[in-house]
Specification:
Strand order of the largest sheet: 1-5-4-3-2
Shape: globular
Helix content: 40-55%
Structural class: alpha+beta
Strand content: 15-25%
Order of helices and strands: HEHHEHHEEE
């Protein structure tokens, strides 16, 4: 399990891009049982990442002066995602700028390959969520634009979020 967690972290870091695409992974620690506890734990880990990116890079530039969403708001924003849609969304968010789609961070094929490996490590029974799709989203950061994909196998989690301002 530790080896897979390390591999997961290394793969996700390959999808990160300075001040735009942020990642987080690790062991999941649900506070209660069942699907609701898993979702709450994923939301909490996502909230930690959103707080870190806000504090590190976006506090002065974000459009929402109230700061990022609370952990409860993050949980409410997460919508279930199929494995196929999770892979596609992770690849798109890692490779293409949300604000200016003509700008890319990496080749889409490479991002899709790495995203597929992340999903493979979490396994076919992993659960996946996002805060929206290509056309609408529920904001979780204090930025005008954000898109995220988060998943877990119940023991480990992976989160990727892209943020931006126009």
């Amino acid at each position: 399990m530790a080896r897979n967690s390390d591999e997961l972290s290394v793969l996700l870091k390959r999808l990160a891009h300075a001040q735009r695409v942020y990642v987080r992974s690790g062991r999941l620690r649900p506070t209660s049982g069942g699907a609701r506890g898993v979702l709450a734990a994923v939301a909490a880990e996502t909230h930690i990442l959103v707080g870190q990116l806000h504090e590190k890079d976006w506090q002065q530039h974000a459009s929402n002066s109230d700061g990022p969403a609370s952990v409860e708001q993050v949980e409410e924003a997460l919508e279930p995602l199929s494995v196929e849609n999770a892979a596609a969304m992770m690849g798109r968010l890692a490779s293409q700028d949300l604000v200016w789609p003509q700008f890319t961070f990496m080749e889409r094929a490479e991002a899709d390959t790495i995203a597929g490996l992340v999903l493979e490590l979490l396994g076919p029974d992993a659960l996946w969520w996002s805060n929206g799709d290509e056309h609408s989203w529920s904001a979780v950061s204090a930025c005008t634009f954000d898109g995220l994909v988060a998943g877990t196998d119940g023991h480990r989690f992976a989160v990727l979020i892209q943020v931006g301002e126009d």
